[in-house]
Automatic annotation (TrEMBL):
Subunit (UniProt): Component of the Mediator complex.
Presence of keyword rRNA-binding: no
UniProt-recorded name of the protein: Mediator of RNA polymerase II transcription subunit 18
UniProt-listed PANTHER family: MEDIATOR OF RNA POLYMERASE II TRANSCRIPTION SUBUNIT 18, MEDIATOR OF RNA POLYMERASE II TRANSCRIPTION, SUBUNIT 18
Protein purpose: Component of the Mediator complex, a coactivator involved in the regulated transcription of nearly all RNA polymerase II-dependent genes. Mediator functions as a bridge to convey information from gene-specific regulatory proteins to the basal RNA polymerase II transcription machinery. Mediator is recruited to promoters by direct interactions with regulatory proteins and serves as a scaffold for the assembly of a functional preinitiation complex with RNA polymerase II and the general transcription factors.
GO molecular function, one term: transcription coregulator activity
Pfam families: Med18
One biological process term in Gene Ontology: termination of RNA polymerase II transcription
Organism name: Lithohypha guttulata
Main location: nucleus
InterPro entries: Mediator_Med18
Intracellular or extracellular location(s): Nucleus
Amino acid sequence: MHELSLYGSIPVGNHDHLLQQLAGLTAMQPQAVHEIHVVFKGRQALGLEKVSGTVGGESAGTQQQQQDLQRLRTMLQSGVFYVQLIGSLLPRDNKRSTVTRQGSGENSIGWENQEVEWTFEFKDTPEAAKQSASTRLVSRVKFNQGDMVTFLDMFGFEYVKRYVVEGQRFYHQDTSLFLHRVRRLPAPRDNVSATDISDLPPWAKLPLLDASGTYILQAMVEIVDGNTQELRDRATGQLLALRDTLKSEVTLAQPDRLALDTRVPITRRP
């Protein structure tokens, strides 16, 4: 599946007005979203630092051997990404609530009355080709049984950090509109899983990542077959039409590709 997106920033003072505009545009009430994101990074293949000037115990002195060695190093260094477990907070009755007006976004949601629906998410780095919207490969898998952190560790992913996302989601034709911002989460205590939410502070007491309270609006279309140009063109056309419709409220644009880079930096071991 491929994701095509445009992004815009909204000052906190414009939040309520934009909510009303989006509700009118989509003819729906906003769906409240509260998520916990747990970030993992892929580990480099063991022994990468030992891949030097020898192949098979002999000197890699020929040009062909050097090329083979370079291809080996490239292979070992590629495909190392950040991935996430995303936990959607649901009331105990599994019914999503709606919000008609959230004001500054402060709320008193409590963890003890919530169930968590976990999804494993991989997002590739956006494509480098010149285009009108950010385009990248995405994959999501429901992941609600067993020790997820241990499972990912066994597959070469180690815990990095966690945070929460609050916002509202709308739908317009094939486009998902997600108005949101991020709050920080404390690191898990020793011997406590990063996915454990039983001992977290009240939501409204979690500090904002951006102290100004600014929101991000993501307009997104997902297409099943990203290799079909017709589907790409249709999705791009919908995003550009929406951009023009909302231009008096928010500037939707393609972000810097490297700002959405999901690759783990390659570092040298001492």
